[in-house]
Design brief:
The chain has helices spanning 40-49, 60-70, 90-104, 149-156, 186-189, 207-216, 228-231, 248-257, 261-272, 276-294, 298-310; strands spanning 2-6, 13-17, 35-36, 54-58, 77-82, 109-120, 125-135, 140-144, 178-182, 200-204. By secondary structure, it is of the alpha/beta class. Bound molecules: flavin-adenine dinucleotide.
């Protein structure tokens, strides 16, 4: 199996392969920066030509690239892409990460996760997108990813690759057999499901993908059949939607002039700062959520709101 893993110092994501179950662990978890494919396509072709079963995971553009590089349809290949609204610049990650390590006084880093699941006891709810940087001595930086400058920039496409703006590989056009993503808005169609811990969507793009899914599905705890039209609306990573930040060019021009990672990280923070009125609104929203959670009426309020938007 081929997938994306961190390099040894977490400054880069690289494509690699494993032939063991234990080896899969390094590929798990989304790494929100563009991975370096290196020689992975060549190696996959070598295995495929030798008649070995290959599963290759990557972003839609990487799967489209793999298909082109192979120039033949191998029945022993299972190509799996992830929903992807855009891939951030590795250079920006390195600047943010170096500044974070310095500020938090973290030693040698042992693990970085963008989507650590943490139960917020105060709110009585899960936060599924926590940025966690653990160091070897047990220290950890933990923060809601989308409250950090890097998460905000990723979410808004501020430092996505330019090719992401013209992505020709989304909307089921990459040639993947399966697509994995988040099923945002699932509670609208499946009100009986508990989605607090997150819910995935698996799209079967081909008969081969469907067969692989059927073979694996007994391992899923909860399973519902949904349509493409249900899974797509809330997910910009599945549909042909372009995330183009109006200040991208301005940001990169300033970023190129930054002398140190600290200065570069300050720019990320500056360009992603939430405007004051939105900060006030967000604060009011958090207060309301806190009060509802404390009075045990959060679930009821969510239900009422969902009912309200359907009408
Ligand atoms: C840059 C990026 C943007 C994304 N945007 C969206 C989005 O808009 N909507 C959405 O629903 N989901 C998005 N995702 C995907 C999502 O975060 C999950 O990967 C997906 O939901 C599958 O989750 P999982 O926990 O089942 O599998 P995971 O354990 O997250 O991993 C699935 C596979 O993803 C591969 N992978 C991880 N990081 C990368 C990377 N940087 N480059 C290439 N392959 C990688 C791994 O090799 C692994 O095999 C994005 C992921 C990335 C990396």
């Amino acid at each position: 199996m081929f997938g994306a893993r961190w390099n040894s110092d977490f400054t880069e994501v690289v494509h690699d392969f494993t032939e063991t179950l234990e080896g899969l662990a390094a590929f798990r978890g989304s790494k929100y920066l563009q991975s370096r494919v290196g020689g992975a396509f060549r190696k996959a072709r070598e295995f495929l030509r030798a008649g070995r079963e290959v599963m290759f995971t990557g972003t839609p553009c990487q799967i489209a690239g793999l298909r082109r590089a192979l120039r033949a349809d191998f029945p022993n290949l299972l190509a799996v892409d992830i929903a992807c609204h855009s891939a951030p610049s590795p250079k920006v990650w390195r600047a943010f990460f170096a500044a974070l390590r310095e500020r938090e006084k973290l030693g040698a880093v042992a693990d970085v996760r963008f989507r650590k699941k943490v139960f917020d006891a105060k709110l009585g709810a899960w936060n599924c997108a926590m940025l966690s940087v653990e160091d070897a001595s047990g220290g950890e930086f933990l923060a809601p990813l989308y409250a950090t400058p890097f998460g905000k920039g990723f979410g808004s496409g501020l430092f996505s690759r330019p090719s992401c703006h013209e992505c020709p590989a989304k909307d089921r056009t990459s040639g993947s057999d399966l697509t994995l993503g988040d099923f945002w808005g699932a509670e609208k169609y499946f009100p009986d499901l508990k989605t607090g811990e997150g819910l995935s969507v698996v799209v079967c793009g081909t008969a081969r993908g469907r067969a692989a899914f059927e073979a694996a599905k007994s391992g899923f705890g909860v399973l519902r059949e949904a349509t493409w039209a249900q899974a797509v609306p809330a997910n910009g990573g599945l549909k042909n939607e372009t995330l183009r930040h109006p200040k991208r060019a301005e940001f990169f021009a300033a970023f190129a002039r930054a002398g140190t990672p600290g200065e570069a990280a300050c720019l990320v923070a500056k360009f992603t700062r939430t405007p004051f009125p939105r900060r006030v609104r967000a604060f009011a929203f958090r207060c309301a959520r806190f009060i509802l959670a404390r009075t045990g009426t959060l679930a009821l309020a969510k239900k009422l709101l969902r009912g309200g938007t359907r009408e």
